[in-house]
Structure formats: C-alpha cells, structure tokens
Amino acid sequence: LAWWDGDEFDQGFGGGLKTDLPLIPTPLFGVDLRASYISFVDSDPTVGAIPLEAAAYVDLTLFYAGAGVGWYVLNQGIKDRPGLFAVGGAKFALFGLGVFGELLYRGVDSTPINGFGVNLGVTLGL
Question: Is pTM, for the whole model, over 0.85?
Fold first, then answer.
C-alpha cells in the first residue's frame, strides 16, 4: 500500500512492488528496485503517476535507510520526469513472512508532485 502527499495534487493512493538485492558477501548493503502506481484522486482531472525507482540502502536488520533515483511516468499531459528520493523504514520477519513500513521523500524535477510518502507492505523470504 502506498500514500503520497503530492505538493500541489494533495494525496495520492496506490500500490506497488519492490525487491531487495543484498550485495554479496554481506546483507548490510544492497539495492532495491521499485515500481508502483499512485492515483492523485483529489486533483482535477485525476493524475496518475508510475514511479520506477532504484535505491542503494544500508540494512541494520530491523531498520534500513537509503537513497535513490527514479523515472516518474505521469499522465494528463504532464511530461515524464527524473527525480530523487530518500527512504527510511523498519521491517520484521518471522518464518519467512514479514511486514515493513517506510517513510520517503520524493523530489521530482519540475513537477507539482514533490512530497512525503508512506509505504506499508508484506514480504516473503525477508
């Protein structure tokens, strides 16, 4: 589940997928890849965003933090743009099933969707 407080577009809601790729030989550092769909329903007309993102992160077992780059595909005649984001979160796993929550900030070049977001999710094989 995803929530994004877009600068001028109010709140957006949606969902997505992410995968973590720990760097060998230690899981302390890694890369994650993300794709989601967010609909800013309060905008007129409704604006949709597809963030395609990659981040480098530091994993401290329960907590993690990272920074990354993204390409943001937008509709309603808004030109697709590059951007940057920072993320921090917590995760907990037991018997291969886990949950996570994270706070992030996205800065998308020359668009009214810069802002904070929250992601909540379920993981397999964490």
Answer: yes
